[in-house]
Design brief:
The chain is an alpha/beta fold. The chain has a single domain (8-242), classed as Rossmann fold. The chain is 43% helix and 17% strand. The chain is built from seven helices and nine strands, in the order βαβαβαβαβαββαβαβ. The chain has helices at 17-28, 40-52, 67-80, 105-132, 154-174, 199-205, 216-227; strands spanning 8-12, 32-37, 57-61, 87-90, 136-141, 179-186, 189-190, 214-215, 238-241. The strands form two sheets. The protein has a seven-stranded parallel beta sheet, sandwiched between helices. Strands 7-8 form a two-stranded parallel ribbon. The relative contact order is 0.15. The structure holds NADP nicotinamide-adenine-dinucleotide phosphate. NADP nicotinamide-adenine-dinucleotide phosphate (NAP) binds at residues 12-13, 15-19, 37-39, 42, 62-64, 91-95, 114, 141, 143, 186, 188-189, 191-194.
Amino acid sequence: MANQTGKTALITGGTSGIGRAAAKQLAELGVHVVVAGRSAERGEQTVADIRSAGGKADFVQTDLQDASSARELAKKAVELGNGRVDILVNNAGIFPFGATHDMSEDDFERVYAVNVKAPYFLVAELAPRMAEHGGGAIVNVTTMVADYGAAGMSLYGSSKAALTLLTKAWAAEYGPSGVRVNAVSPGPTRTEGTDVMGEGLDQLAAQAPAGRPASADEIAEAIVFLATDRSSFIYGATLPVDGGRTAV
Ligand code: NAP
């Protein structure tokens, strides 16, 4: 892939799993990556790993809860990017599973805050700036369970379904200004976040043609494709990277 030196990317949840893999792959292409998350320890470790491999990286500690935390993160990323952010990867997400009747209002607020509100206000802050600078790319990370009804995943799946629609809405809104907005929809993927699922992850993955969970790097490949000019004519698409689960 062409060298991407000179670009800056903000990757939310860049301190773990899929986000960290995407940050590392983008850094290998020469992109200055700004990784964001709550854990300073994981953030500093990610930055140290990228720098020791010759890449350029910074960490911003943030708890994405609302519009102000999203706007503050966007501001810091712009500062670190010397006035511009060319790529935004809305990857941070939480996925508590459980029956609808077991979810509290607090669970509902938390899931929608991280999975929907934070991406919404990051885009509000960064997409117009990208347009001012002649363009950019935004990649939202959704999930295969935003595409079909799965028991125990109503809260999580619905929040990501909102992000799928926002991907199209933002493509309509910002595409004409040169900002491409797309999404990657992963299937079961081995990360720190899914460790707790144990064999449940394999059972879920067994339902798809691929028959196994993905690695974080396999999902990151698709994110990087949509974040860079190799996908220059793709706008508003959601790419399933789910081992074929939603195809069958
Ligand atoms: P993960 O290992 O749990 O990582 C989640 C990341 O999000 C961490 O970097 C975490 O950082 C960050 N984060 C969570 N809450 C945050 C908050 N309030 N403020 C700021 N950052 C926050 O998850 P993953 O498995 O890599 O998943 C990444 C994305 O892919 C998520 O959106 C998830 O829904 C989606 N996805 C995953 C799978 C899968 O099977 N793994 C499948 C489909 C979709 P800190 O802990 O440092 O805050």
